[in-house]
Fold this protein.
Amino acid sequence: METPGSQSSLHRANLERVVRAVRLAGSLTQAEIARTTGLSAATVSNIVRELKDGGTVEVTPTSAGGRRARSVSLSGDAGIVIGVDFGHTHLRVAVGNLAHQVLAEESEPLDVDASSTQGFDRAEQLVSRLIEATGVDRAKIAGVGLGVPGPIDVETGTLGSTAILPGWTGTRPAEELHGRLGVPVHVDNDANLGALGELVWGSGRGVRDLAYIKVASGVGAGLVINGQIYRGPGGTAGEIGHITLDESGPVCRCGNRGCLETFTAARYVLPLLQSSHGTDLTMEGVVRLARDGDPGCRRVIADVGRHIGSGVANLCNLLNPSRVVLGGDLAEAGELVLGPIRESVGRYAIPSAARRLTVLPGALGGRAEVLGALALALSEMGDSTLLDGTLPTAAPAFT
Amino acid sequence: METPGSQSSLHRANLERVVRAVRLAGSLTQAEIARTTGLSAATVSNIVRELKDGGTVEVTPTSAGGRRARSVSLSGDAGIVIGVDFGHTHLRVAVGNLAHQVLAEESEPLDVDASSTQGFDRAEQLVSRLIEATGVDRAKIAGVGLGVPGPIDVETGTLGSTAILPGWTGTRPAEELHGRLGVPVHVDNDANLGALGELVWGSGRGVRDLAYIKVASGVGAGLVINGQIYRGPGGTAGEIGHITLDESGPVCRCGNRGCLETFTAARYVLPLLQSSHGTDLTMEGVVRLARDGDPGCRRVIADVGRHIGSGVANLCNLLNPSRVVLGGDLAEAGELVLGPIRESVGRYAIPSAARRLTVLPGALGGRAEVLGALALALSEMGDSTLLDGTLPTAAPAFT
DNA sequence: CGTCTATGTCCAACTAGTGAACTCTAAGCT
DNA sequence: AGCTTAGAGTTCACTAGTTGGACATAGACG
């Protein structure tokens, strides 16, 4: 640890290399590890033995019908990670292992008006339940990823004002959960985690740059640049909901006028349908009705799509991501909303940028955020955590 | 080279570490190197000897009034880099060394209608002249950075259509210059290089995320994210000039309507002043008149600023950079344009993002691009090039 | 002028990776 | 069945390279 530039650090780096290779591939034989990592067979042999002794890796004596290949894979109980996602109306928890496998996942409704304390209590309970259900060892928890539906101050870890969970403003979610679970907790907002989730498990596999647009009560975007969440220095990157589409448009809750959100977010869109469809409509309902053919709902959704498309076109001109993934309730509308988005992008983005852009619906639906939280825990943990035989049960730090 | 993960690669990494430390600090004693790099004194001793023998580093027997410290610094002639910038109306070349010092710099007018061949000939001549003037060894050229005022296809290195140098579309500038100079040439567009230049030498020192907005015949932005130029998968990131401000605004050359450019670029703005100020006005002239107090020009510049501010507000919401640097002719207008920009940003960006944003004029003026080209050559070279005694005189690759 | 102290160098010890030789096992051929 | 073949994994001697400690050096301080 104390030798930053030499010898043993090299060994460490090679250990990580091997672990990473195995994790990415699921399972490999030693010869394959040698080939993909570029290390010599002898070195791989030593490293695998060391990892096996440390318990981070499992060697299944002979797997395929081949000659004598021993396939190496991450041992399932080497460590587990947990994803927790506080959403608009529900709480969702997932348990996964270091091999990127999701072992269990569950969600339950969350009372919007519940205090933050109640919320965290509930989260703790649900986590405990899932851990028991999967039968894993509590001490093996390597880290927790936590998603919250609002802006997080990166430096202090304090939750900014959120219209979605009003009573939670000013709390420090990571600290709260860390106090209850005793392991490192890493927070981020739901849009960023959704982006990460889709990148790792969903519609963004294999892509390095991705924008995840989440339309729900508000509109937010999570940006992944070069394989990493991009938060911006202030942590507020991705606020696509408040780019200005029409300087003299409706007044937005942010104080400006004509923000994208005023044309697309549920709270602004649903009233349009009140007189014709009644007052107790939800976005989900509108989407369902539209799919069933209701012309009014279809029109509203298409209009929303067009406006999102304008925003995406701006995003595309500025950032030129290779993929845009649409998440949130609205994604359920499929082509009804994607069509207009693509059309709008084609119209407003410069052609060379638009040509390379793919707009896809999220593949994970409401699970994107929890899975992203899982991915966050995995990535923040760094592979090096795997390498100490002892996984941290007390947290050295939390973010 | 062939050992990707081991031993000699460690040595290489340590060599680079030392070179980098020395380069950043200017000059260090061996003990200081040991402390900043974390390597042991013995290792540093060996490495310094190796570097000294290789000629990349110079050891001045005793420098300060201390005991017996030998200060180690990059030898001035260890290698030089060259920046070439083709601008709207001029060609600019700079010569620098690996210690980030600019040894010589010169610009000359360039005929817009000249063929690309003529342009590259002129560039070659100017480079030769500067090399002779500084008296450095041609064989020491480690790389060339090249700026072109138009979109470059990252894969093929082909220059896309540019309204600024019409005859150059479809040429491969890097290849052209590589053919003439025989060293690796790395191209990028002028906005990206301006961003890099300001980041390394100008108003962006010490910042990791920066947007450089260049207003000239068009409007472009160069983005630096996490200390690196961000080009986007298609290489067209930063096209701030074509985000839509007004869906029913003037038709833009890109085919859309109401692009930022139609409110801010010279070709759209100058006509506004034709009836009052004559037809042979340039953007530079407008700026000068505005500074002298001409109310019409002041008004025009303030309006341009407001529109740029709207674009920057969008940029700020999406990307949340910590700094925006304004370059190009317009930057000369100082507060006359920055005031309205800041005002517009304050109005249209979400407050939490706007609060962290600093909008500054470029510190390098027209030199930003050449210096950025220099920085590009330095960064693309990678420190490892320093480590072979022989700097490449024939190029293994060019980008 | 002697002592002190930080610098740089040398040397022996140690760590860790590598190539080559070797063993093992199953598949394929005769 | 028996032989050959070939890829997988292991062992071993070797080598590259870093480190801690001993040692020499030379200005600073008293």
Notes: Confidence is low (pLDDT under 50) at residues 383-399 of chain B. Chain B is about 40% helix and 20% strand.
